[in-house]
Every structure is written in C-alpha cells, then in structure tokens.
Amino acid sequence: MLRRLIFAFAALLIAAFAALMLTKTLPYYTFEKGIHFLTTKSDETNNNPCFRLAFYVHITTSLIVLVLGLLQWLPAVAGRGGRLHRWLGYGYVGGILGLAAPSGLVLAHFANGGLAAQVGFTLQCVVWWLTTWVAYRAARRRQWPRHVEWLVRSYAVTLAALALRGESYLMFYAFHTKPIETYLTVTWLSWVGNLFVAEVLLELGLGRYFLREMMSRLRRTLVL
Fold this sequence. Notes:
Blueprint: H1 2-25, H2 43-46, H3 49-72, H4 75-78, H5 82-109, H6 114-140, H7 144-158, H8 160-174, H9 179-203, H10 206-218
Helix pairs in contact: 1-3, 3-5, 5-6, 6-7, 6-9, 7-9, 7-10, 8-9
C-alpha cells in the first residue's frame, strides 16, 4: 500500500509539472524572439536558424516524451494491453532518439555558462539517447528485466527538466547561491543526481516491482 501511495504521489507530481511546463511553453509558439528564456540569448543566437529550429523541436518533443513516459509507468495504462504499451513506447523512444536528444545537442552548443554548461548539457543528451536506445534494444530482444531497468534510467534523464527547476529554486531561495553558481550546479546535478537516485531505487527493487506489477500483464500480449 505504501509503495502504491508513493508511486501515485510521484505520478501526480510529474503530471503537475507537465501541466506547468505546458503553460510555460505555449507563449513561445508566438515565435517572438524577446520573451522569457530567449531574452537570455544574444541577437545573433536568436537569429540563428539552427538554434531556433532546435529550440522549438526540443521544447515540444521533450514535453511529449515526458507525458508518454509517465503513461508507460501507470498500472491503469499497462492493464490496457501490449498494443497501447507498444505504441506509447514507440512514441517515447522515437521522440527521444530522433528529436528531443538531437535537438538538445544543438542547444547545448548555444548554452549559457560557458564550457562547463555546454559539456554538461551535451553529456546529458548523449546519456539520454544511449539509455533509451539500450532500453529499446532490450525490448526488441524480449529481455524484460533489462528493458525495465534501462527505461528507469532513461526516464530519470527525461525528468532532469523537473529536477533542474526544483533544484534551482531550492539552491537560490534556501541556500542563497548566486545565479551563475546555481545554474552551473543544476546543469550537472539535475541529470547526474537523477541517475544516482534511479540506481539506488533499482538496487532497492524498483525494477522488480515494475516487472511484477505491470510487465506480467503485458508479456503475453507484447509482440515487438
């Protein structure tokens, strides 16, 4: 019962964050250059077609895969059968491998904060791509324990956007760090910290929990 309550709370938190991110993303679709995050970029960067294309691809697909990933972990969705799980999985994997991670690599080149931030965001995108690819290959080979474990790692990196904002508020308001100190710290902590937590949870049996509670319902119907 406690596990279910914790899982439900985590799902609600992610859903609330997705809704919040949607409200913050919508204003960008006016395609103005002088709003919100884009005001931190130079005119040269804002006028760069590669940056602008990557920015809009990234903010759109990152939100989509965040929601698709959440749906994959919900028992109610898993209970609907393998076809739904498979198509949601294709959307999640394809969104990251083909759009979200590659566009993130482009944005990493334009990151504020110098080399430390650029390397941090670049490695985040590389790890995001690789963990998702390994999870996908494991599913193709019907290696379900490996599939679940690597999806946990992939989604941990997907949730870096949530962690980045939460950690930024905590550091700035609770510890009164300077903006640049906050930014450079969360650039790395948001995804490395998430992966650390994921590994701890996997050691505590999170992967086995998902296999027992959800994959047992899907194995008979999954045809990949």
